[in-house]
Amino acid sequence: MNANQRFAISVHALTLLASSSDPLTSEMIASSVDTNPVVIRRTMASLREHGLVESKSGAKGGWRLLREPKEIGLCEVYRSLDEVNVLAVHSHPNKHCPIGGNISGVLRSVFEDAQSEMEKALGNYTVADILNDVRRKANQ
Amino acid sequence: MNANQRFAISVHALTLLASSSDPLTSEMIASSVDTNPVVIRRTMASLREHGLVESKSGAKGGWRLLREPKEIGLCEVYRSLDEVNVLAVHSHPNKHCPIGGNISGVLRSVFEDAQSEMEKALGNYTVADILNDVRRKANQ
DNA sequence: GTATTCGTAACTATAATGGTTACAATTATG
DNA sequence: CATAATTGTAACCATTATAGTTACGAATAC
After folding, report:
1. pLDDT > 70? residue B1
2. Contacts 24+ apart (CB under 8 A), A36-44
3. Which of A2, A81, A82, B90 could form a disulfide with A8 if both were Cys (CB 3.0 to 4.6 A apart)?
4. Pick from B65, B75, B132, B115: nearest CA to A106
């Protein structure tokens, strides 16, 4: 269904930042993610708007976390991206049909419930958890 | 993120079928959904492959449920569509970076967990529930 | 035999996404 | 102050997913 990589890129970037004491440039993050620095800036811009990271222009600039990795839950990261809903209601059901005319609201409410459970599950993980798991894998 | 309407269309179609004693043609379902009959056939084909509905060609043909509406959970409907995962892992992280080289598996496992919670939430609703809710809305 | 209906391939239009280039603005540093 | 490094952002392109559409063969009821 969805092939949007922004969330994965965001978690990857945050994990990198959590693993580093110094700020990292878009270039460095892009190299680890394997994409273009502009893609990183675009993605990180959303995280910055939500107060998760800070960026600095110019020489010795780059990105750094504004919070402890263990205080950044993945649910918040996900929500920072302002993605559209994972389950989409169809657009123009027939208003003159008893089902078509009334199903949109019902679906919306069910889909919201499902998505909210998904986000709750994401909230069980923090950036610190991801970094720990990654390091554990690295040591195998 | 995802703007795929197949799941919404499927639930809509199944609800319609649940509301009708006779089989419904792709044409009739398409009219309620407001789309083309071919889109309905394509979507319903997945549900048929998973034993949720049956289709019959020819005059007086059409679609009908193979199970009681209260025995069709939305999780099963969702899974019948073989959609890709709602949260996508990014494609080629840098294998030579300690983070990039190990994060894919970690993300996959977290994303699977989140999606599984979403599907579990969908499973709390059946087609009969949706039909009831739609009818309740219609009577307001 | 005819009308109805599904099955499916083929094609098109639209939109989302990511990648890329380019350049202005900002900043550290010598 | 000059230079190099870095972000911000607009603009554009290529790819892909999606839905819509047409067309036609196969199946079926009557």
Report:
1. no
2. A39/A9, A40/A9, A40/A13, A43/A6, A43/A9, A43/A10, A43/A13, A43/A81, A44/A10, A44/A13
3. B90
4. B132
Q: From the CA of A45, how many Å to the C1' of D9? A: 11
Q: In chain B, what are the domains?
A: 6-83+126-138 (1.10.10.10)
Q: Is the pLDDT at B3 greater than 70, yes or no?
A: no
- Strands B53-56 and B62-65: what pairing? antiparallel
What percent helix, strand, coil does chain A show, rounded to 5? 55, 10, 40
Token look-up 């302002």 returns A82
Q: How many angstroms is C1' of C22 away from CA of B103?
A: 33
Structure tokens at A102: 């009334």
In this prediction, residue A1 carries a pLDDT of 43
pLDDT at position B18, please? 98
Band of pLDDT at residue A123, cut at 50, 70 and 90: very high
CA angle A132, B89, A29 (to 5 degrees): 65
Pick the closest to residue A134 from B70, B108, B27 (CA basis). Answer: B108
A64 CB and strand D closer than 7 A = no
Cβ-defined contact of A98 to B122 (cutoff 8 Å): no
The whole-number average pLDDT for the span A68-86 is 95
Q: Could you check: is the Cβ of residue A55 within 7 Å of any atom of nucleic acid strand D?
A: yes
Whether pLDDT at A54 is above 90: yes
Mean predicted confidence (pLDDT) in B68-82: 97
